[in-house]
Amino acid sequence: MTATPPLNRRPLASRGTYLARAAADWLLRRKATPDLISLAGVGFAAAAALALYGAPDWPWLWLAAAILIQLRLAANLLDGLVAVEGGRGSALGPLWNEAPDRIEDTLILVGFGLAVGAYALGLWAAVAALFCAYVRVLGGALGQPQSFAGPMAKQHRMAAITAGCAIAFVEALAGGGWGLARLVLWAVALGTAFTAARRLRIVAAGLRAAA
Predict the structure, then answer these.
(1) pLDDT for res 8
(2) What is the pTM of this model?
(3) For the chain, which residues score pLDDT lower than 70?
(4) Domain extent listing, the chain
(5) What does the angle CA 15 – CA 198 – CA 42 come to, to the nearest 5 degrees?
(6) Which of 16, 70, 87, 164 is at 20 to 30 A from 24, Cα to Cα?
(7) What span, in angstroms and rounded, lies between the C-alpha atoms of 96 and 158?
(8) pLDDT of amino acid 14
(9) Fold of 6-210
(10) pLDDT in tens, 87-101
């Protein structure tokens, strides 16, 4: 990842926490590169998808998937801290900043859909997430500040899916299906589609104002 202009950097309150700063300092002392941290995020997402694949048969894997999803988000946070605050951005940083995120979202959303018996819905949620990110980057390409508006931006999607994993774990222990967990996926899919539409309106308004 490379140093990103403030207007095109996702605003995260967690970036300023003591734990995040301490973790970034630890990685900097060990000469970790932001690109390698981004790659680790893909690894966590792939492991989460594998955990979700096995979760219907081994319920404890729901909790493992929830932890791995949070580790994916931690990697997404720390690559930026190491790149920008740590001054270790690279020429390929913009690619590492975007491409891994799209892979990670797809793995987790499709994996969750498969795990709760709603594979098609998981695919639609992944497509919505891809389009939502595309609209953000498109706005930047058109000279507008990239919009990270919600209500279902990346961090919100992953928070919802993490909660969905916890709900599915409880449902599995109760001996039922995954009805509530599917509702979470519906909320993610519909909320992400709404977020993409909202970002389109923001880009359109910016272009009209600049005309």
Answers:
(1) 65
(2) 0.92
(3) 1-9, 11-14, 16, 86-87
(4) 6-210
(5) 45
(6) 164
(7) 19
(8) 61
(9) Four Helix Bundle (Hemerythrin (Met), subunit A) (1.20.120)
(10) 677 777 778 888 999
**pLDDT given for residue 18 in this prediction:** 75
Torsion angle in degrees (nearest 10) through CA of 77, 196, 202, 204:
130
Residues 23/14, Cβ–Cβ less than 8 Å: no
Average predicted confidence (pLDDT) for the chain: 90
Q: Which of 124, 131, 130, 128 is nearest to 110 (CA)?
A: 124
* Residue among 101, 87, 81 nearest 18 (CA): 81
CB-based burial label for 51 (10 Å; 0-12, 13-18, 19+): buried
Q: How confident is the model at residue 148, as a pLDDT?
A: 93
